[in-house]
Amino acid sequence: MGSKLKNFGLIGFGVVAGIAASLQYSALAQKMGGGPLPLEKLSEFSEVFGMIKSDYVEPIDDEKLLTEAMNGMVSSLDPHSAYLDKKAFKELREGTEGKFVGLGVEVAMEDGYVKIVSPIEDSPAYRAGIQPGDLITRIDGAPIKGLSIDDAVKKMRGEPNSKITLTIARKTEDKPIVVTLTRELIKQHSVKGKVIEPGYAWLRISQFQEPTVEDMVKKINALYAQDPALKGLVLDLRNDPGGVLPGAVGVSAAFLPKDVAVVSTNGQVEDSKRTYFAKREFYVNGTGGGDPLAKLPAAIKTVPIVVLINTGTASASEIVAGALQDYRRAVVLGTQSFGKGSVQTVHQISADTGIKITTARYYTPLGRAIQAKGITPDLHVEETADGDGFNALRSREADLVKHLSNDKEAEKEAEVEKTAVDELEEEKRLIALAKKSKALEYGSKDDFQLAQALNHLKGLPVKLVAVKTSDAATSPVTTAATAAAPVKSKADKKAEPKKK
Fold first, then answer.
1. Would you call 470 a catalytic residue per the annotation?
2. Domain map of the chain by residue range?
């Protein structure tokens, strides 16, 4: 059990289920040296506990009270730290392995609701006709407005063969759609791709899981088998919520020069101060087996690349985009990413419970902090030719309550006026909004950002959006030719490992 848990220590971004990386920190032992515990507050806690037990309107179980106390203590830190009860701990392990019991949907948050990015093929959601762009407004009749994406996903998970009822807003329907589904074991495939046209391929990674690196190698080899003379590759990381850190390092290493630094982390604990390199030991769990990247065609190191990102690009996917951008290995195209630049560590508390706690910030090879800022694209291209659709309504890391600050630069404060809206009126407004926005299937002929990425690879004009100079990328790259050749600058050399 212990060795298995070490395979999901560092957590990326838990949108689908909570997913983890490869190492554990010894934070708990070191934290105890911070001074004596405040006895007065412990006494107050004991008194509050006693009052609830004696005075609350109905009896409350001791275990429930203590569990909720731990949950509140951890969740008060930041949006990504959490106490993991038996159910959450089990789901975390399942998500890491790429399988879970649920409905089979890839989701993101839109305007306070859950948006279907795409149903997984041959899943309950797929068979029920749930479509990309659908918005889930209620789960089992209860409104989900105001829930976090993690809480909404928890409600959709459950035991095999159990039923769940979803209320859905769809752009083509005037009234909400109500559908009842039966949960079942879902096996995810995080990598897909195809040759778009002769010479140009599309590779999409929807989430970073333990099998992602090997799955990516198989898909790239299949693409080259179909078209050995690829002249350009589009790496699609849109709405990729992140995942296991080794997956991000391995995907980056596939395209970068050998042994260069991919990402570094820094936190209070000594073990959190690390640099991860494009070496086998940083993306392959365990000591056995060969290097999956050795099976890739040599051309993958030099083929021109465009990386697609948007507001749903978070954590591990931001690591990949940032590393390829820093080394000028790829042009990043799209809109500003989410900005989740922190690392979570899972500590096991009992045989089937634990805590997920933020232990470090991560940085690109050039030392850029992504936390609460995100990756700025080299080419700012909206989701559609007419604008960014739902993407403009999305929240980012900086919008989350109690988010961790960016330690490299001051954050801009903005006051947002919030008003209470009647639930029924809100659902009507949401349906009207959905009707104006065309559901997008990534990789389709209607994918505007993909079309612009192909234009860039071909040297054709790209439809850009004007951005302020202060928002420009650190190292903007504007041609496929420069993107194909890694640049050795002083900053690049600083990011490389020292030779011993």
1. no
2. 99-187, 191-383+440-495
